[in-house]
Amino acid sequence: MENSEGVKIESTVVTEEPLISALDIALFVVIITVAYFWYFKRDKQSSSSEKKPYTIQPSSLSSIEQTSNSSFIKKLKSTGRSLVVFYGSQTGTAEEFAGRIAKEGARYKMKGMVADPEECDMADLVEMKEIQKSLAIFCIATYGEGDPTDNAMDFYEWLQNGDADLEGLNYAVFGLGNKTYEHYNEIAIYIDQRLEELGATRVHEIGLGDDDANIEDDFVSWKEKLWESVCSHYGIEETGEESNIRQYKLVDCSEVLPERIFSGEISRLKSYENQRFPFDVKNPYLSKIAVNRELHKSGDRSCMHIEFDIDGSKMRYDTGDHVAVYPKNSSELVDKIGELLNADLDAVFSLLNTDEESSKKHPFPCPCTYRTALTYYLDITSNPRTHIMKELIEYASDPKDQEKLKLMASSTPEGKKEFHEWILRDNRNIVHILEDLPSVKPDLDHLCELLPRLQCRYYSISSSPKVYPKSIHITAVLVNYTTPTNRVNKGVATNLLAQLIPTDDELPQPTIPIYIRRSQFRLPPKSQTPIIMIGPGTGLAPFRGFIQERDYARKEGREIGEMVLYFGCRKKDEDFIYENELQEYVANGTLTKLHLAFSRDQPEKKYVTHLLEQNADELWNIIGEKSGHLYVCGDARSMAKDVHSIIVKVVMEKGQMTNSQALNYVKKMEQQKRYSADVWS
Description:
Layout: H1 2-16, H2 22-50, H3 63-69, H4 72-78, E1 83-88, H5 93-104, E2 112-115, E3 135-143, E4 147-148, H6 153-161, E5 170-177, H7 186-197, E6 201-202, E7 207-210, H8 215-234, E8 248-252, E9 285-294, E10 303-309, E11 322-325, H9 331-340, E12 348-353, E13 368-369, H10 370-377, H11 386-392, H12 399-409, H13 413-425, H14 430-436, H15 444-450, E14 457-460, E15 471-477, E16 480-482, E17 488-490, H16 492-499, E18 511-517, E19 531-534, H17 541-555, E20 563-569, H18 572-575, H19 579-587, E21 593-598, H20 608-614, H21 616-625, E22 629-635, H22 639-654, H23 659-671, E23 675-680
Helix pairs in contact: 1-2, 11-12, 12-13, 21-22, 22-23
């Protein structure tokens, strides 16, 4: 631009004066100088951007990389592989299982590759038949109310809407679900059936993992039979070679400049210092804690009301959405690992994938210190799975410790029993294992490779954006419990949140990374539609937002329908949360009825389910005669199931239907979004 303007100026001057003046010379020098600096500065920036070391985004690929890496078929062919394992994962478990299967493929002369369907052109499945003895395995989780995970959504829709000819494709499916939820493994079951409908050949029957029981046991049992079927189908035999081969290699990064080292960012380096909208799972917003107050009036338990400040973030949420909170592990546990392994936690390192074709170059943001990895990126508080037991065997110097690990890593009945009792029942995490098997001293970089990623925690938002557009409220119970080995386990997120207490305005406020996850848990479009809300304990959270929104509409002069709330807790004078707010909503007419159950305020325990049974007429009047909506929030394992049974019973009796008709009626309510659940196990 400077050059263009300079030429015009010079041309004008020459026309007016035939001789070169001092002004001409001065202008020319300025133009040349500006052009020189502009050109070489741009070139320098371009070069420096190409030479930036360790600028990684492990959770995403650039648009160029996505285009070049989208053909998994080309990768399989160019690297001599015949096995591809796709994963649909929301918390990382399905991805972990996929990695274990791909790794074991080597034992059966099937070189494997793990693939994220979101980064692949899944239409290439039609070309799998071109690869001799090829196999596609799908480890697929079902999420929410029978939904595909975010990264499997496009693949799911492609299967639904497409009619590709998949004849010649050999496949197997393992589903990850939870039996406490109604739509148990729905997505995996659909994918398994749909692939067969499109002409693919099922090599092994679908496996259904239940996270409410022992999903590790389900997976291991299915995987063993899978390889038997694979051997039979392809006429191959197991080589017997162990597959304890490192997926990542250690890189010493002690010379890397401090500004190039990750310090807890999820994806983009220095993203917390330089925040950029939009905010999501890969780019969370560093929110200030505006309010953190105790809701319980007495007793030894704690329930926190927390408000995240989102003013200026451009973030928007709807009533009923969830907020994801990124926690960090306690420094006490992190330091303990360093002490047990005699490791320098402040050493800077990187783990680089030994598979050059993999789009996932690092297991977590690298380079970083071991302290950062153990604090922000790795799950050190959950129960380790059996493959970690297997990998730890080589690091045990005591034969007794070796034998114990071998037993727990095995798939024998005795091994499964020992793993269930010593790991699951006694609730041991990796720190406890290293404490109780003192001769086990794994290399810290290998341990970092083995441990799963630390996941964000989701909370139902307990506010309405109509009333609180600049803040997000949550209601969270502090999690602390004693294990059978007399250790105190602490909830990672809630114990961190309990420490984040706002200070005086002059001082920096505590912060935590968050993002908003959309939900289908929504108020009816019309404010006149009557609703029933059932939410004991912290299940009240989303209904606080519902009530706020209806109250806002009432104050605007709009007509609002009946709002009936069922709430329960242990004792009225102890854990009746938001009592004053609820009583005020009853007084002003927003909340039509408030049914309360205090389970321990009388000799016989009373729960919200008892009140529902007593109020069958009211229940049918709203959901049957007035076509109202019904919402349930809370424990999926017992409360939500009991509520469902009561609803079916009420519909059957008051609607004069058979059991089959009542079940169909309730099913139709769910399909019409008139019966919604926001539950957890």
